[in-house]
Specification:
single chain; alpha/beta; 9-stranded mixed sheet; two-stranded antiparallel ribbon; 10 helices; about 40% helix
C-alpha cells in the first residue's frame, strides 16, 4: 500500500530572529538545529549583524523592520502556513506588532507558537529593551504554547523589579503561567549541587519539572538559542515537554563538552556542529511509532 500523503509530509517551522554573520547564535544555530530534525525550516530575519554583539567591538547592524511587512504580506498572499513559529530576537516593538497581526493566519488553527523573549540577562535588561518591547512580548505570550525566558526575562515579563548583577529567583508556577502561555520553560535555573538546567511549568499541573546538567565555566553566546530551538524541534515532532527539555539539555551539554576540546574563544559560541549527528539520531527516534 502506498504511503499516505500525511505520512510523507514534512513539518514546517518558521524561525523569527536575527542573523549574525559571525558568532554562533540566533539564526546561525536555530536553522541547522531545526533542519537536523527533518523539519522544513523558513527564516524571517529581524536584524542583520556583522557579528553578534558580545566581544567583537562595534558591530554593523541593519534593522529589518522595513522589509518584514512586505515579506509577511507576500507570504500571506501566497497562503503559506506553518506548523510552528519560533520567535526569538526582535529589533523593536513594531516588529512584535507585525507578528501579532500575521501569525494567526500563518499558523492557522492548529499551528503552535513558541516564544524565546530576548530582553535581558544577569539581572539587567539589554540596552535595546524598553517597556514597549516588554509589553509586546507579554501580548505574544498570550498567543504562545510555550515560552522560554531566562530568569531575568521571566521577572521582566511578570513586572518583578531587577537588581543588576543578581539573577532573580525562579518564578512560582502560578506566576509564570499567569502570563497566558500554556507552558513555560525557565532557563538558567541552578540546583543545590551547583548544576544548571531548566524548570518547566505546565498548565493543569501544580508540580514543576526540573532537569539539570553539569555547570560548565564560561559564558557563550547562543546558548539559549540552541536550547530553545532544539526543544522546539522536538516538540514539533511530538515529544512531550519534559522529554523535549531533556533532549535540549543533553544536546547543550554535549556541545559544551566539544567546545572545551577546541579551546576557541568563547565569543565564537559553542561547537554545536559536533553534537548534531547524535541529535539527528535522537530526533529520528522520536518519529518511530
Amino acid at each position: 500500500m502506498p504511503l499516505s500523503e500525511q505520512s510523507l509530509r514534512q513539518s514546517r517551522i518558521l524561525v523569527v530572529t536575527d542573523l549574525s554573520g559571525v558568532g554562533r547564535c540566533a539564526a546561525m544555530v536555530a536553522v541547522p538545529v531545526i533542519s537536523s530534525s527533518g523539519s522544513n525550516c523558513a527564516l524571517l530575519p529581524t536584524a542583520v549583524f556583522s557579528t553578534h554583539t558580545g566581544g567583537f567591538g562595534p558591530v554593523h547592524r541593519r534593522d529589518m523592520t522595513p522589509d518584514m511587512a512586505p515579506i509577511l504580506t507576500h507570504w500571506l498572499d501566497l497562503g503559506l502556513q506553518f506548523d510552528t513559529a519560533y520567535v526569538s530576537y526582535v529589533a523593536n516593538e513594531r516588529q512584535l506588532a507585525l507578528l501579532e497581526d500575521a501569525l494567526p493566519a500563518l499558523l492557522g488553527a492548529q499551528g503552535k507558537l513558541y516564544l524565546d523573549p530576548v530582553m535581558g540577562d544577569h539581572g539587567r535588561p539589554y540596552a535595546f529593551c524598553g517597556e514597549a518591547l516588554v509589553e509586546g512580548f507579554s501580548r505574544l505570550c498570550r498567543m504562545a504554547d510555550t515560552v522560554f525566558p531566562n530568569r531575568t526575562e521571566a521577572a521582566m515579563l511578570m513586572g518583578v523589579p531587577l537588581r543588576e548583577g543578581e539573577e532573580p529567583p525562579p518564578p512560582a508556577v502560578g506566576d509564570i503561567l499567569s502570563l497566558g502561555a500554556r507552558n513555560a520553560v525557565v532557563t538558567g535555573v541552578r540546583d543545590e549541587a551547583g548544576r544548571i538546567g531548566v524548570m518547566a511549568a505546565m498548565s493543569g499541573r501544580r508540580d514543576v519539572y526540573h532537569t539539570f546538567r553539569k555547570y560548565h565555566e564560561g559564558s557563550y553566546p547562543g546558548t539559549g538559542d540552541l536550547l530553545a530551538s532544539c526543544a522546539v524541534a522536538a516538540l514539533t515532532l511530538g515529544a512531550a515537554l519534559p522529554r523535549a527539555c531533556e533532549i535540549a539539555c543533553d544536546f547543550l551539554d554535549e556541545s559544551l563538552e566539544h567546545t572545551a576540546r577546541y579551546r576557541t574563544p568563547s565569543r565564537f559560541g559553542l561547537a554545536f556542529e559536533q553534537a548534531l549527528p547524535r541529535l539527528s539520531c535522537v530526533f529520528e527516534a522520536l518519529k518511530s511509532p
